[in-house]
Q: What sequence folds into this?
């Protein structure tokens, strides 16, 4: 009997309600020992089966069996999107993206679905679990820590059978900063090593050293010196490959960077140019410091001091002191003597070129300085005297111009001569006294001499009395032809 309904009696099929179909009769067979054999078990075969056996003497035996039908999980899949698949089936996505996970499968009865994650810092962690045939999960702003293996596990709750489908997801990212470019001086001055490093990108970026001609990215037209998939790339170049004004660039390419947004660093090479005072004078037995500044060289130059036309390198000691102050190189010469006089060279060399600054040192004795001081004093006296004489002549310029010459420069007063015609207009008749006419009827001309204070002595004469300040008139009668008014 199944679930209270008869299936077979006395080894043959009974007439249960409902009546089994012929196909069911063929699948259900009662063996001689009373066992029930079911062929091609289906989900509908589930139920409680009861076996009753009656013997003579009214003896009855009962056997009960509970039949459960289960199917293993099948069609288990996991999908991740949006993501890009590599040739080996591994998926990758870019940092900060939103990722959707889907886990599905089928089984009887309904399976338990679980989405699990195994990463570098975790084992098999369960992210989400549900009973059914479909499971969804989302990660927003995905980070490198979410990189790992994602698994969809479907487990039948009856049989305990588990099916697992997995996929690996990579998170690609690149640092926002640009690569770091630096140079290292080789053992000889004719070679230099350029190094470019760009750490923090996943997967490993592609670095490229080349000569920049203004174009970047895939259409970069400059000469390429080295290309490698690495976090750091070095290239060695000699003087024949370098020139002043050349731009050497390191380009970093990565899948996480859009085309045209590559990161790079560069150098614009410049030859040395030492600067300083080319002429230096020092007093014998004193100390003098020669300075040289080199700030323009790229790569940085090696600057040294040398002496003489043979340019013998100067070694520091009791005579010479070498020091640095930023970009300035100093040479101090102690207890200067005549032997130290001559040419000194500030020599700067980088892989592009060699440049020199010539500094000529002149050593003076103490007697030479004494003569110079006396000469300066005499020159000052001459200049001062000239100034005083010029000032005196300028202040007495009116006396000199009136014909008095330099002999009357020191006089306190000057004369003004006025000639007035006797029959002039009325305006002069009121101001100029007249002499009575002569009996012979000739005209009479009045000459007045006005004595006024000199401009150079006005301050001294302010203390004189008012009577002395009045103009003095001297009238002189002349018998001559009429004249116009002339005033000096």
A:
């Amino acid at each position: 009997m199944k679930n209270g309904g008869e299936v077979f009696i006395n080894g043959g099929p009974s007439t249960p309600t409902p009546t089994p179909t012929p196909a069911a009769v063929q699948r259900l067979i009662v063996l001689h020992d009373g066992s029930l054999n079911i062929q091609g078990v289906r989900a509908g075969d589930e139920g409680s089966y009861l076996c009753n056996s009656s013997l003579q003497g009214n003896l009855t035996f009962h056997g009960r069996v509970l039949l459960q039908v289960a199917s293993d999980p099948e069609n288990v899949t996991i999908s991740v999107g949006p993501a890009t698949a590599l040739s080996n089936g591994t998926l990758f996505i870019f940092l900060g993206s939103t990722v959707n996970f889907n886990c599905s499968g089928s089984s009887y009865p309904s399976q338990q679905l679980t989405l699990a994650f195994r990463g570098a810092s975790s084992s098999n962690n369960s992210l989400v679990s549900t009973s059914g045939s479909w499971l969804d999960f989302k990660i927003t702003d995905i980070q490198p820590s979410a990189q790992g293996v994602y698994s969809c596990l479907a487990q039948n709750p009856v049989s305990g059978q588990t099916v697992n489908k997995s996929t690996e997801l990579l998170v690609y990212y690149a640092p926002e900063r640009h690569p770091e470019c630096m140079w290292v001086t080789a053992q000889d001055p004719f070679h230099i090593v350029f190094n470019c490093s760009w750490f923090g990108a996943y997967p490993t970026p592609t670095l490229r050293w080349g000569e920049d001609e203004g174009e970047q990215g895939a259409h970069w037209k400059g000469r390429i010196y080295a290309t490698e998939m690495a976090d750091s790339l070095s290239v060695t170049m000699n003087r024949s490959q370098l020139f002043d004004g050349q731009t050497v660039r390191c380009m970093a390419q990565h899948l996480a960077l859009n085309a045209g947004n590559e990161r790079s660093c560069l150098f614009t090479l410049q030859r040395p140019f030492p600067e300083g005072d080319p002429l230096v004078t020092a007093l014998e037995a004193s100390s003098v410091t020669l300075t040289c500044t080199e700030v323009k060289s790229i790569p940085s130059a090696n600057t040294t001091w040398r002496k003489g036309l043979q340019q013998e390198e100067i070694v520091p000691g009791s005579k010479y002191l070498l020091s640095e102050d930023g970009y300035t190189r100093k040479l101090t010469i102690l207890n200067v003597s005549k032997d130290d006089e001559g040419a000194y060279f500030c020599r700067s060399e980088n892989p592009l070129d060699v440049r020199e600054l010539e500094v000529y040192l002149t050593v003076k004795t103490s007697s030479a300085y004494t003569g110079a001081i006396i000469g300066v004093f005499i020159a000052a006296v001459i200049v001062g005297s000239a100034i005083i004489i010029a000032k005196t002549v300028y202040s007495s310029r009116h006396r000199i111009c009136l014909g008095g010459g330099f002999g009357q420069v020191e006089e306190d007063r000057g004369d003004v001569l006025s000639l007035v015609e006797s029959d002039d207009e009325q305006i002069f008749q009121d101001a100029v006294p007249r002499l009575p006419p002569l009996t012979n009827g000739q005209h009479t001309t009045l000459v007045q001499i006005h004595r006024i204070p000199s401009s150079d002595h006005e301050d001294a004469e302010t203390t004189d009395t008012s009577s002395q300040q009045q103009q003095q008139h001297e009238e002189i009668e002349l018998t001559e032809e009429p004249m116009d008014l002339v005033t000096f």
Q: What stands out?
A: The mean pLDDT is 79. Residues 426 and 432 are 10 Å apart (CA to CA).
